[in-house]
# Entry
Amino acid sequence: MPDQAFIHIVRVDIDPEHEAAFNAWYEHTHFPDLLACPGWLSAKRFISVGDGPKYAAMYEIAGRWAFETPEFLKVRGFGPFESLVKNFMRIQLKPLSGPAGRELMTMLPAGSRDLAGRIQEH
# Structure
């Protein structure tokens, strides 16, 4: 993938006894830390309604370079939950061009649509 904007999805499980603390850390510490990093444009969390890890986070990333900034290198990973996270999965996606891509992008959160338009132009 050329160095262009894309969607980065992370999925994980964590034992139930750590869920409340993990979710609080993710929302109040991890998301703000990541969104303060250059190139990390938006973030949203989800719970799986099907197979695979229970928790998912979807990020808009300006380009692969965003994973190499000093700011990101300081906050990457799962902090105090690093050893407790299980079933880690990652997927990185770029939108399709044409009608299917435009339809897909309308399903993204409202803040994602501007980026989606910029991605489709490339």
In short: Residues 112-122 have pLDDT under 50 and may be disordered. The chain has four helices and four strands. The beta strands are 6-14, 40-47, 55-61, 85-93.
